[in-house]
Design goal:
mainly beta, 7-stranded mixed beta sheet, 3 helices, globular, about 140 residues, single chain
């Protein structure tokens, strides 16, 4: 079964490990509310996200899940303060998403004019013994 997982840019920048397609990672997966990602990736893509990766504030007793990374896609979008806002907090602007398939996730991305890097959409599967021996973690 293939899973789609959201990985925040800052999670990797802070203390995460780089990963590539084919790598086996061990992540704590938390369920998400698709509405939280609709403006960033669009409602249709948000509905397909199964989990988000979390390694800050891990839930006590929640085990990490081993996963084999299949694909990695950078997510870029525009952020701005909504016109009806009374604060200076910027929000993702719906409809501005640009997806860029990449061969490595390291928490950083090449700048895209007018857009900010938000994170990654990662497809992964749970490894099985039929897939062979140990696979290197991360890079």
């Amino acid at each position: 079964m293939t899973l789609t997982i959201w990985v925040d840019d800052w999670q990797i920048q802070c203390c995460g490990e780089n990963f590539t397609p084919g790598a086996v990672v061990s992540w704590q997966l938390l369920e998400i509310d698709p509405g939280d990602y609709a403006d960033v990736v669009g409602s249709e893509r948000a509905a397909a996200i199964n989990f988000r990766e979390e390694h800050h504030g891990q839930e006590e007793g929640k085990a990490s899940t081993p996963l084999r990374v299949l694909t990695i896609t950078e997510v870029h979008c525009r952020y701005e303060v909504p016109s009806d806002s009374t604060s200076n907090v910027q929000h993702a602007v719906a409809g501005t998403t640009v997806l860029v398939p990449v061969r490595e996730a390291d928490g950083w991305a090449d700048a895209r004019p007018g857009l900010s890097f938000a994170g990654y959409l990662v497809t992964a599967e749970r490894p099985t013994s039929k897939q062979g021996g140990p696979v290197p973690h991360g890079r």
